């Protein structure tokens, strides 16, 4: 829908955020009834202040695409709203040089009792588009939103995702100067997301300045020259996107991974199907306590996970290495024990299992304390939370210790491939 390259000769930065802090005032109680209001005369209302942003300082140069990433509640949307002038900073200042188009809270202003077509007309009029152009664009907008057949359907009959799609399609009719985008990719199916990404690519080619809040790190990696990492309202880092994503994934404080800290209830566990065939039933019935069983001649005392930097961490990027260190105590000399792991997904799909016997490793006789590492040099899993089962057993399957899905790690997809796992493939042009 957009043509032509924006002519930029001005060297002034597009956005200058200087020392911005934002405090929200949260009342402790809400007075709704007359009685509560009369009572309130004698007890003044109490408030709590919450600092959502603290001394945020950065500059977006013209034509740059800047990502804002961080955990939930870190202040990303608040910062974007302050840049868009929807919210005022408590202290500090924001200077914007250019016409800003915020793709935030898309669809605010849409009327539930108007049809899709009527809403496009109203929204486009507010955006300052001429009647002639609106009439010319309507089919394109509906087509982009994938809603051509709902032209005369009232908005209230659409899902919230459909409404955002319609609003996005309507909003991209005018050429932005500085574009602020908040999580628009979170709505819509893969086709719609792809269309949005194509639009952003087009904007980028035209030199439009973009600030892009997203939890989708692969989209941030693809579009953003620079990225700002927020944590608890403060800037942790600002710089080259790949370095900041690495900082986000690996720089955060290591999560606790001890079994007792895992909020994975036994009732949630989908049973021990993966154990069947690998586990002696009688042994299991006798010994099973809270997802753990075995005769404990060898006890698995701890399991630690290490990232590519050698830091204890259970959060890694896809494609990076993960080392699982199994600490054990053999209470008597045990000949040729076998150590194994099973990795299963959050929804109990068995992803991978191996053990020292399968790998042809003879451990000889073990006794006392020891540890063994399994190194995954290239994590092929793409995204999600994965549980690890760790076991020590004999070659003929007498279980010494079995910890069923007691540990977990999270893989963050920072690339562009989709699905559960990265299947090695190559394209050949024939
Ligand atoms: N109007 C408000 N009044 C009080 N607190 C607010 C208000 N708006 C946001 N907050 C709080 O400020 C903090 C930052 O919120 P914000 O929405 O900016 O975070 P975010 O990083 O965008 O989170 P998410 O990734 O979940 O969208 C949160 O703790 C939120 O509860």
From TrEMBL:
Domain (ABC transporter): residue spans on this chain: 33-257
InterPro entries the record matches: AAA+_ATPase, ABC_transporter-like_ATP-bd, ABC_transporter-like_CS, ABC_transpr_TagH-like, Bact_Polysacc_Export_ATP-bd, P-loop_NTPase, Wzt_C
GO molecular function: ABC-type transporter activity; ATP binding; ATP hydrolysis activity
Protein name (database record): ABC-type transport system, ATPase component
Organism taxonomic ancestry: Archaea, Methanobacteriati, Methanobacteriota, Stenosarchaea group, Methanomicrobia
SUPFAM superfamilies on file: P-loop containing nucleoside triphosphate hydrolases
Pfam families per record: ABC_tran (PF00005), Wzt_C (PF14524)
Similarity remark: Belongs to the ABC transporter superfamily.
Protein keywords: ATP-binding, Nucleotide-binding, Transport
This protein's record includes keyword Nucleotide-binding: yes
CDD domains: ABC_KpsT_Wzt, Wzt_C-like
Record's GO cellular component terms: membrane
Claim: GTP-binding is one of the keywords in the record: no
Originating species: Methanocella arvoryzae (strain DSM 22066 / NBRC 105507 / MRE50)
